[in-house]
Amino acid sequence: MTNRGTGMTSTANPADERTARIPEFPMARAAKCPFDPPPALRDEQREGPLRKVRLWDGSTPWLVTRYSEQRALLGDARVSSEVTRPGFPNQAPVKSGSTGLSFITMDDPEHSRQRRMVTAPFAIKRVDALRPAVQKIVDDLIDTMLAGPNPVDLVEAFALPVPSLVICELLGVPYADHDFFQSNSRVLITRDVDPEERWGAMKRLTDYLDELLGEKIAHPADDLLSGLVPRIETGELTRNGAAQMGVLLLLAGHETTANMIALGTLALLEHPDQLALLRETDDPKLVASAVEELLRYLNITHGGRRRLALEDIEISGETIRAGEGIIVPNEIGNRDPEVFADPDRLDLRRDARRHVAFGFGVHQCLGQPLARMELQVVYSTLYRRIPTLRLATGLEKIPFKHDGSVYGVYELPVAW
Amino acid sequence: MRVELDEPKCVASGQCVMASPEVFDQRDEDGVAVLLEETPGAELLDGVREAVAICPAAAIRLVEG
């Protein structure tokens, strides 16, 4: 036998070797490219559309790396979003007895039944009617900022208050409670948090929403939470179900958009030619296009959308077996060169509307018209009103949210 | 060309209204898509094709006839 033969006998069998090469997930972004997906994720995309990764618990779900397979699987009725199913590829340990988060962790038909109870206020026309109110919120916050200290943390002074004020108004949640719901929301979207602590944050928020629902039952107002009261009374929705729904909308309504505002501003400050386009335009079409491109480019949900196969699924020459986990990191789907030419270039003029930043399939973000409108108002106002806006520190000093399920920056010191 | 809308599949994301406001609207009560033009003119077909492509629930089809 040759040396080669000897070498082979001394290694583990080929199957073990394959297993050993399965990369860990999630993967780290490169420090020098904070807007780009992790380089290792890009390597996997180059290797193929369906790969395997290893999670914190040792499980090895599928990783879906390319746009078309991402859309196909997220749109497939044979995948489940029920996080409590055995084998579900969860982000982190879940305290036993925990439930999911309202309808985003349910499957149809119950998912659809509950989702349709809250879709009306997010319809395009309803959201458009809120545009003047959002413009006023944005203008007022900029006035306050300009009258206050310079430099300032844009997250605290602007990025977080804008969507928080808007979602509070829409849901009927008192903005005065923002410190409470913002800090508890942050726990829910941080990956490396003790399961007990996450459970505690979820409980505090659910209790808070339950109390608010009590007030709406006593004194109904013209807001989304009051709109749920008749559903509770008819038995269409339990009060706890309504409270969970409130937590979901409150959380999703402020954290995501806040990160798009702050991270988007940072990305634009680092791409001055693109920022100039926004600063100098009156064209709502260019503003809308810029929002789509920033959504594509930044894709602030990270850590992947998670599903479980309920049946065997044949796709792109592979078979995903019933009971296997599926992870869909949309940040890499949005950088698929087959779909977006020169995908790593931020180009506000490109047609990016087919991005999957809001996910795909029946669970696609229901608040997307609101998010779009808020971002259109923000991006078309902030840089025009503060044309000298600049970073007040070095890019390397900015604390990025590497540890969350929503990407962004913890702080963004800016000056003008 | 004729537009077909599979209403029970609709998830009320509003994508079709964004892509093609002349052809699609949303119901007041739950945001579910409503077809305004079953046989839109040629000048509207690009918008409809975009709506077909971005509908997350694959609820819209553009068919011959």
Question: Summarize this, please?
Answer:
The complex is a heterodimer of chains A (416) and B (65). By secondary structure, chain A is of the alpha+beta class.
Features:
heterodimer; A: 416 residues; alpha+beta; Cytochrome p450; 5-stranded mixed beta sheet; 3-stranded antiparallel beta sheet; B: 65 residues; Alpha-Beta Plaits; two-stranded antiparallel ribbon
Structure description:
The complex is a heterodimer of chains A (416) and B (65). With 416 residues, chain A is of the alpha+beta class. Chain A has helices at residues 3-10, 14-20, 39-47, 67-74, 110-115, 124-129, 131-147, 154-159, 161-171, 178-188, 195-218, 224-234, 239-269, 272-280, 284-298, 330-333, 368-385, and strands at residues 50-52, 62-64, 79-80, 152-153, 305-309, 313-315, 318-320, 325-328, 390-391, 413-415. Chain A has a five-stranded mixed β-sheet with strand order 1-2-8-5-3. Chain A has a three-stranded antiparallel β-sheet with strand order 4-10-9. In chain A, strand 6 and strand 7 form a beta hairpin. Chain A is globular and about 60 Å long. The model of chain A is unreliable at 1-11 (pLDDT under 50). The radius of gyration of chain B is 10 Å and the shape is globular. The model of chain B has no long low-confidence stretch (mean pLDDT 95). At the A-B interface, helix 6 and helix 17 of A face helix 1 and helix 2 of B.
